From TrEMBL:
This is Electron transfer flavoprotein-ubiquinone oxidoreductase. Keywords: Acetylation, Electron transport, FAD, Flavoprotein, Iron, Iron-sulfur, Membrane, Metal-binding, Mitochondrion, Mitochondrion inner membrane, Oxidoreductase, Phosphoprotein, Transit peptide, Transport, Ubiquinone. Binds 1 [4Fe-4S] cluster. It comes from Pieris brassicae. Monomer.
Length: 605
């Protein structure tokens, strides 16, 4: 009898240990209510869930160049027509421009149309381009490439700007025109009318603990109901993803293709500063089959200011080696003998990163749907060969506003019935936005051949010469995440250790972003299935999220039992670049808006 009891106890012990191992292999990571419904959670049983609502005529989601241009244009038309039209813009950053990160070398064409007297009004276009350079880097040298009028990378007539400063200035113009700008107000959920059309958005709830339970300070988000909603969220907008799925906006387009852009702002020695110089490179340290390159922009220093240089590096997210780290490629780039002297004796003062839309013409979604439309980078209007999107973003925002105002002034758009702003699509097709993108449509996908960089350069030269009139359209060949190869098929990449002078580690870089999130909240990097990171990403791809994230959000750490690893999500580090949502090979990560918007404070980078 005693023996039987002992054996039974051993079996129970073995079973208990097996269950413990099973669950410790895949511990619960995601606690966000978008994955774990609150409807069946007893902790939420008696919580008041009613939301307050505001009504507006035009609702704009996102306060970048496209959103601000849309707000200004809508109010301009309202003034011209003597109409009372409420225009409301929601921006998730704590202040206008706070989440803006860009090169940026801006074509002023859209600004000239929107605010012709921008110079008199003090627009921060302080650095006209006066010199262009373009080169192919080898491991130890640089081969100059031509830059002349007619080429996409010819920048005379453009301006080097700090885009965050420009957006802040645009916000001032929008408010002066009568638009309402709501900073620190992040849209989190789409709202629909009974007929299926878009009714508006709801902002995120606040006061939710890390374990998903309500805090004593819990407050429901706010609803914004509109006649027309214009989405200008920037690259890979989370609400745009929802709208695209709801209205099947990508039915006739290829999957969007992306890049990640990383940027630093440096104070450099006076002798290394050449205000108005715009320089781009391709080649080293990337191999010929990895798309990417650098930008180096010299900004005009104001009185009493140190000489500033913006340096950045872009890597196409269609790369195949899971061991590639865009951040470390960027740091390695600065060690090139042509580049390094520029930063010697200087001081790095800022860092940031963001995803870029690179798909162009082939990847454009249908931009309109019942109750709203898409504008700017959220629709994919970046011109990759020109390395410019601000002018197209602003122009598309202006056209969206014009179409929305037509429907509102005619009385067709009401709060009760959703209408599709179809004229917006027509206006886009007749604008330079579509003309530009169609003309350069084959340049980016031409880099996908076995010749890689060299084949792409040759084909792009041909396509530019014929102004994109070739009677075919090349394909990007599928989604970026599907192009990552299993780790066993690839070689690890040996990166140099940071020296703390020219090159830096990831965490000290993240510290410069000013990123901030409430610690006691569910991670906004959600997983559809908490077991997938270890089962697939780690076991097949050797944990690529730890390398493609430019902020140290993802890391694999040992289990307490010592017999495996688990994924740890450091959500407080997130700088809202959206790269994880794009490049995750399992498509298991979904970025949702954090409580209160959170995120970086780029302050004019």
């Amino acid at each position: 009898m005693a023996t039987a009891i002992v054996n039974s106890a051993r079996q129970v012990g073995r079973l208990t240990n097996a269950v413990r191992r099973l669950y410790s292999d895949y511990p619960k990571i995601t606690t966000h209510y978008t994955i774990h419904s609150r409807d069946k959670d007893p902790r939420w049983k008696d919580i008041e869930m009613e939301r307050m609502a505001e009504e507006t005529d035009i609702l704009i989601i996102g306060g970048g160049p496209a959103g601000m241009a849309a707000a200004i244009r809508a109010r301009q038309i309202a003034e011209e027509k003597g109409a009372e039209v409420r225009v409301t813009l929601l921006e998730k950053a704590a202040e206008a421009g706070g989440h803006i990160l860009s090169g940026a070398c801006v074509d002023p064409i859209a600004m000239n149309e929107l605010i012709p007297d921008w110079k008199e009004k003090g627009a921060p276009f302080d650095t006209p381009v006066n010199s262009d350079k373009f080169g192919l880097l080898t491991k130890s040298g640089r081969i100059p490439l031509p830059v002349f009028r007619g080429l996409p990378n010819y920048n005379h007539g453009n301006y080097v700007v700090r885009l965050g400063h420009l957006v802040r200035w645009l916000a001032e113009q929008a408010e002066a025109a009568g638009a309402e700008v709501w900073p620190g107000c992040a849209g989190a959920e789409l709202l629909y009318r009974d007929d299926g059309s878009l009714k508006g958005v709801a902002t995120g709830d606040v006061g939710i603990a890390k374990d998903g339970s309500p805090k004593d300070m819990f407050e429901r988000g706010m609803e914004f109901h509109s006649k027309i909603t214009i989405f200008t969220e920037g690259c890979h907008g989370h609400l745009t993803k929802m709208a695209s799925k709801k209205y099947n906006l990508r039915e006739n387009s290829e999957p969007q293709s992306y890049g990640i852009g990383l940027k630093e702002l440096w104070e450099v020695k006076q002798e290394n500063h050449k205000p108005g110089l715009v320089e781009h490179t391709i080649g080293w340290p990337l191999d010929k089959n990895t798309y990417g390159g650098s930008f180096i922009y010299h900004l005009q220093a104001g009185e009493g200011e140190a000489p500033l240089v913006a340096v950045g590096f872009v890597v196409g997210l269609d790369y195949s080696n899971p061991y590639l780290s865009p951040f470390r490629e960027f740091q390695k780039f600065k060690l090139h003998p042509y580049v390094k002297p520029m930063f010697e004796g200087g001081t790095r003062i800022a860092y940031g990163a963001r995803a870029l839309v690179e798909g162009g013409w082939q990847c454009l979604p249908k931009p309109v749907f019942p109750g709203g439309c898409l504008a700017g980078d959220t629709a994919g209007f970046l011109n990759v060969p020109r390395i410019k999107g601000t002018h197209n973003a602003m122009k598309s925002g202006m056209l969206a506003a014009e179409s929305a105002m037509e429907l509102i002034l005619s009385g067709e758009a009401t709060h009760e019935k959703g209408v599709t702003p179809t004229s917006y699509e027509d206006k886009l097709k007749q604008s330079y936005v579509y003309k530009e993108l169609k003309q350069v449509r084959n340049c980016r996908p031409s880099f996908h051949t076995s010749l890689g960089l060299y084949g792409g350069l040759a084909y792009s030269a041909f396509s530019t010469a014929v102004r994109g009139k070739e009677p075919w359209t090349l394909s990007h060949g599928g989604a970026d995440h599907a192009k990552l190869k299993p780790a066993k098929e690839c070689q690890p990449i040996d990166y140099p250790k940071p020296d703390g002078v020219i090159t830096f580690d990831l965490l000290s870089s993240v510290a410069l972003t000013g990123t901030n999130h409430e610690a006691d909240q569910p991670a906004h990097l959600t997983l559809q299935d908490d077991s997938v990171p270890v089962k697939n990403n780690l076991n097949v791809f050797d944990g690529p999220e730890a390398r493609f994230c430019p902020a140290g959000v993802y890391e694999y750490v040992p289990l307490e039992t010592g017999d495996g690893q688990r994924l740890q999500i450091n959500a407080q580090n997130c700088i809202h670049c959206k790269t994880c949502d794009i490049k995750d090979p399992s498509q298991n990560i979904n970025w949702v808006v954090p409580e209160g918007g959170g995120g970086p404070a780029y302050n004019g980078m």
